[in-house]
Amino acid sequence: MESRLFKLHSFTVVGKREQLDLVDGEHEQKIPELWNLAKEPGGLVDLLLAINNENIEGILGISDISNSSQENLNFDYWIAVNSSHTEDLTHLTIPAARWISFEIDGVTPQSIQKGFSKVFENGLKSHDLVAALPYQIEYYPPNYLENVNTLMEIWIPIEII
Prior knowledge:
The chain is α+β, with helices and mostly antiparallel strands. The chain has three helices and nine strands. Strands 1, 2, 3, 4, 5, 6, 7, 8 and 9 form a nine-stranded antiparallel sheet that branches. The longest helix has 17 residues, at 110-126. The radius of gyration is 15 Å and the shape is globular.
């Protein structure tokens, strides 16, 4: 897996948020269902790309585990874009951080799910890194819908150990 380190200033995303359950792998089935609906013509992805007006071009799948605990095995999953168009839309601000990006190729959702396993089993350890914030981002470039062979990325905010 190719990787690169980069820094991002704080940024705001807007989109659709769903609370998902980590128990029994329910999220592994639900996330692809959310994407299938979002990618329909005139659907959420088209709306989001139309308001994507900031530095990060493309669609983001964001896992937010900030409210998850041993008692609460839920997390928020976002399909979103970086945008300043927050009025009347659900939005989230991601704090400034250093990130590592891992390139992922293949057919989604299987390649993304396998990619996350590789990142957390080997990728971070091989770079002497740990996750620093409760966010994990799937990055899909703007031309993703037209070309499903486009490389995707997994972004993890990091601390060097």
